[in-house]
Write a structure and sequence with these properties.
With about 230 residues, this protein is α/β, with parallel strands linked by helices. The chain is about 45% helix and about 15% strand.
Length: about 230
Amino acid sequence: MRTDTNLPHGATEPHVSGVCHSAPLKVDATQKYQSVLLVGPPGVGKGTQGELLARIPGMYHLSSGEMFRQLDTDSHLGQIFHKYATLGDLVPDEITVQIWRDYVAAQVAERTYDPARDLLILDGIPRNVAQAALIDSDINVLKIIYMVCENQEVMFQRIRGRAAKEHRLDDAEEAVVRYRWDVYKRETEPLIDYYPQEFIRIIDADTIPAEVLHQILAAIVPVQKMHFSLSLM
């Protein structure tokens, strides 16, 4: 797998479908993606907030779930991912991060995401400390949005309601919901201690989506203005 010298450090030639390879957007090979991480337990509303942020000019929301859904199953990495997913196993961190690198490179090539203009909102990746260490060379983390909801049952109800709405009935089962919560507590929550504490902004997610969005924007708009030229937005 060759490295494209026009892509940021660690990014390789895309392996996702639908990529336009003509006249790719050139990016300094040493450049890091200016990023904000969305972190929070299942059902806290990261997906909802990510979709809202994606509609704001100058912000690009990257969901790991959407990334995996768009993965070309005929590609080398796609076949590896499918093998683990079929067995119900977690994809190794190194493979997950390589898929992420290829996906981001594809978005840059398609001009869907412009690192010089857009703040990258990462949702679902890094999923754990190991992945965070692997992508440290690719991203410059400007802020960690740590969404919390004190009422655990409210989050469980959100997951079950979403599962029923999207016809994902397996996710509506109590055992599945609580397992996802346990995985989050064990693997993802330690990210909060991995990054400098001054980067962390705690967001009260136990309120209406508009109020949650207001809190998030208050945290990330200042860093966006600091790191991006207003004339490019």
